[in-house]
Amino acid sequence: DLQICQHRAPTCCTKKMEESYQAAVRRERTQSIQALNFELKYMIVGHITAFQEAFESLLRFAENRTSSLFETAYRPMAKEAAEPVKELFTDISLYILGAETTVESAVLRFFDSLFPLVYSRLINPGITDLSEDYTECLRLTRQDINPFGHYSKNMVTELSKSLWASRMLSQALSLGIEVINTTEHAAVSKECSRALVRMQYCPHCQGLTLIRPCVGYCLNVMRGCLASVSELDAQWREFISVLEYLTNGMAASHDLETALSGIWNSINEAILHAQLNGPQLSATVDKVCGQPKQQEGNLSSANIVSVKEVTETQTFVMAHTSLNNKRREFINYMKRSRTFYASIAERLCDGDLVMRDSSTCWNGEDVV
């Protein structure tokens, strides 16, 4: 009553043993593919972790640098500016990790929150009554009178380019893990499991426990079993090309590190621009929002301070170097995996599974 290992000679197998063999080959095939995938998956997961750690380090550095700007140059508004600064960098982090938000909305929301502070603490430092209605009016007016000139738009442009590449790379790496996980658990068809039993276990039914499959026979069986997986070859090669494009982009015109480290300078230039145009801004705001209560002796625009480069660059340089090195190592490794899905049958038929150095092997029917 054997269904797979039928042979003219006497056999020591039963139908129940055949069923056990089928369960064994399914388990073994999954384990074999998992073993092949492990190194590739480990490399991608490792890079995701390294990328996120280096990115968070750069982000913390950029946030600290921006906070220092307010504490050193714009002390009257430093305490109130802390929350908008924190929100800006949280939004940037969420964007890179794939959240449904945009760089433009994050930056413009920051400048909306910043304008009431700049107006009441720097341009008109004598304002005493900053009600919710007046603050909201200032926020809405910011969009119309553009107090920060082209600096706010430039910041959107610079960050959008660099953060886009980082966001895409983060999503691409997650997609790579998803693809690998899917191939590990691809179902073994009934036809495939029967072919694997015939190749690996039918010799045992004849007492030939040391005979292993012929190389060509193994390749034919594995290619048939893995036809759906090997169809990923073209898409995987394209995926590697996209990763290469994104990593090169991040190191060139879309340089994440340069964009993040330049945020403080863009904000500083924007505030200086608003202060220098203080009288015109005040006249427009008075028309739109009305005149708030002020103390005697208004010190309008008296405390313009130009800020030089903030120090503490060592942390930034280390994170920058670390990220560049990780990117270079990673893409060189991934380029070597271009043929991963095209050669998966060859790799499964390597090693101890087949008979390579002997003239005697199993061809599916007999010893040859």
TrEMBL record:
Subcellular location: Cell membrane
UniProt membrane topology term: Lipid-anchor; GPI-anchor
Entry keyword set: Cell membrane, Glycoprotein, GPI-anchor, Heparan sulfate, Lipoprotein, Membrane, Proteoglycan, Signal
GO CC entries: cell surface; extracellular region; plasma membrane; side of membrane
InterPro entries according to UniProt: Glypican, Glypican_CS
GO biological process: cell migration; positive regulation of canonical Wnt signaling pathway; regulation of protein localization to membrane
Pfam families hit by this protein: Glypican
Domain of life: Eukaryota
Family: Belongs to the glypican family.
PANTHER family per UniProt: GLYPICAN, GLYPICAN-5
Functional note: Cell surface proteoglycan.
Name of this protein: GPC5 protein
This protein's encoding gene: Gpc5_0
